[in-house]
Amino acid sequence: MSSIPNLVTCLRVVVNRESQTFHIQWSDNHDCRFPLDGLRRACPCAGCQGHEKMHKLPDPEIFHLPALVRWENVKVEVAGSVGLRLTWDDGHNSGIFTWERLRAMCPCR
Ligand SMILES: [Zn+2]
Ligand SMILES: [Zn+2]
């Protein structure tokens, strides 16, 4: 099986309800910290983004908007080798955040 060169893997995911952040640690020592509400707005499913926009990255601005909702019960599941499926307080879980997408959306840039 050929592997993708420079494949960076996810080591750890932490949902911090206190600080309302979603923290991903990668194998190359990079950390991504997303505000939970921003990540909810970035849900890649067709219902949230529409069919044309769902394959594009969201506007990075959404991670800098003030949070409108406090998320208290976010569940994270690994969706095979593809990425992460998040289930939000409102039961919404149609979007799979691929590893590439999570990494590309990182608000640190
Ligand atoms: Zn969605
Ligand atoms: Zn980053």
Task: Please describe the topology of this protein.
Layout: E1 10-16, E2 21-26, E3 31-35, H1 36-41, H2 46-53, E4 75-79, E5 83-87, E6 96-98, H3 99-105
Antiparallel strand pairs: 1-2, 2-3, 4-5, 5-6
This protein binds zinc ion (2 copies).
Compute the CA-based radius of gyration: 14 Å
Q: What topology, given as strand order, has the largest sheet?
A: 1-2-3
The mean pLDDT is 91
Instruction: Count helical runs.
Output: 3
CATH class: Alpha Beta
Key terms:
three-stranded antiparallel beta sheet; binds zinc ion; 6 strands; NE0471 N-terminal domain-like; alpha+beta; globular; 109 residues; disordered N terminus
What does it look like?
Helix content is about 20%, strand content about 30%. The protein is globular, with a radius of gyration of 14 Å. The strands form 2 sheets. A 3-stranded antiparallel sheet has the order 1-2-3. It has a 3-stranded antiparallel sheet with strand order 4-5-6. The chain starts with 9 loop residues before the first strand and ends with a helix. By secondary structure, the protein is of the alpha+beta class. The structure holds zinc ion (2 copies).
